[in-house]
Write a structure and sequence with these properties.
Elements lengths: L2 H16 L30 H5 L4 H9 L25 H11 L2 H15 L23 H23 L2 H5 L4 H23 L1 H7 L4 H17 L3 H15 L16 H14 L6 H19 L22 E2 L2 E2 L4 H15 L2 H15 L2
Antiparallel strand pairs: 1-2
Helix pairs in contact: 1-3, 1-14, 1-15, 3-4, 4-5, 4-6, 5-8, 6-9, 6-10, 8-10, 10-11, 10-12, 11-13, 12-13, 12-14, 14-15
Length: about 375
């Protein structure tokens, strides 16, 4: 691991502690390219998620995984105080990546416990039960909200499953045989979940039509789980959804949210897009996404103060007094921003990405 990458790794993980080869489907027509001021350059050789995370120090990774440990029954996040929805099991992805990196069966068991927890609440339709807490009983959720919640979870599950497939340790080691059998037993449940998501495509396209952030989550769910299950129709649908998100990118580089820009939502979109990039098997789609992500990161860099603070002035959604989620004001997604710039640095070795990741991590760890 390079000295530069090691420094970024340490900063990012301190920040976190503080808080099958398949046929390539044919892609639809390309999305509109970002503006002429953006020069993305050639797409570099891509790395799988296990290859990326293998570059991180394992002792520090342990601190990252510790912040996402499930309860004894596998519950994560808001589900720890009683099942709410599978959407709150999204940390199955970092738990899985940590297990692959450590190659410890106990860590893999932890990740699988969190995955199995969600599927214990799967309905016959393939969707997941929704059990609102008492304080939220009066909340009315649309069909689009329900479908989006499921897409969020599947956008974590799909990359986790692909990462397992990309791991020689998981695929070949005798100590993972029981885990492989457990995952195989869940395969029909994965198929039902993907079938449900595909059935909700028109609902999601209407509900998320003006929300590039959500569209990218939808695309990641469809492409990654579709690739894992060898469902080319799902992958094609995901590429179409991805292109709808890219078409909402302003020539300046930001993904338009509620008629303007938002540095926090930009950070999440970039991080999700970088998870989507290695899941794609269509080279043309990868190249379109790569160009968009580089241009988007160039814009986000203009919203990073010299101190490393992510500027929220002018944001349409996340700012002091801005939007809330479940009654709590949304906070700037600094972890996503730092991870996105780190990911770009790992792929390109471009020092500007290293500098941004370091600045963001330094600012938010000393607060």
């Amino acid at each position: 691991m390079s000295r530069q990458l090691a420094r970024i790794t340490i900063a990012l993980l301190v920040l976190s502690a503080c808080q099958r080869q398949q046929p390539t489907p044919t892609a639809p027509a390309a999305a509109a390219a970002p503006g002429p001021g953006c020069a993305a350059g050639a797409m570099p050789a891509l790395l799988s998620l296990p290859q990326l995370y293998a570059q991180l120090d394992q002792a520090l990774l342990r601190r990252l995984a510790a912040s996402a440990q499930p309860a004894s029954d596998g519950a994560l996040g808001r589900n720890r105080s009683g099942y709410f929805h599978a959407r709150f099991q999204m940390d199955v992805l970092p738990l899985t990546l940590y297990a692959i990196t450590t190659a410890q069966p106990a860590d893999l068991d932890t990740a699988l416990r969190a995955i199995s927890y969600a599927f214990a609440y799967q309905e016959p339709s393939g969707d997941f039960a929704l059990q609102l807490p008492a304080a939220l009983q009066n909340q009315q959720l649309s069909a689009g909200d329900r479908a989006s919640g499921t897409a969020f979870f599947l956008a974590a599950l799909g990359p986790a499953l692909l990462a397992l497939d990309d791991s020689p340790w998981y695929a070949q080691d005798a100590d993972t045989a029981a885990a492989r059998q457990q995952i195989e037993q869940l395969r029909p449940s994965f198929e039902r979940a993907l079938a449900f998501l595909k059935s909700q495509a028109s609902v999601l396209q209407r509900a998320d039509a003006a929300a590039p952030n959500r569209l990218l989550f939808d695309a990641l769910a469809l492409v990654s789980l579709g690739r894992y299950l060898n469902d080319q129709a799902a992958q094609l649908l995901g590429i179409d959804v991805m292109d709808r998100a890219l078409a909402l990118q302003d020539p300046a580089g930001f993904y338009a949210e509620r008629g303007g820009y938002d540095s926090s939502y930009q950070a999440v979109a970039l991080h999700v897009g970088l998870l989507l990039l290695p899941a794609l098997t269509d080279t043309a789609a990868q190249q379109r996404l790569w160009r968009s992500l580089v241009c988007g990161s160039d814009w986000l860099a203009t919203r990073i103060a010299p101190s490393g603070e992510i500027v929220t002035d002018g944001n349409t959604r996340v700012y002091p007094g801005g939007e809330q989620f479940l009654g709590v004001e949304k906070r700037v997604a600094y972890k996503d921003a730092a991870l996105a710039f780190w990911h770009l640095y790992a792929l390109t070795q471009a020092e500007r990405y290293a500098a941004q990741a370091q600045h963001i991590a330094a600012f938010y760890t000393r607060r």
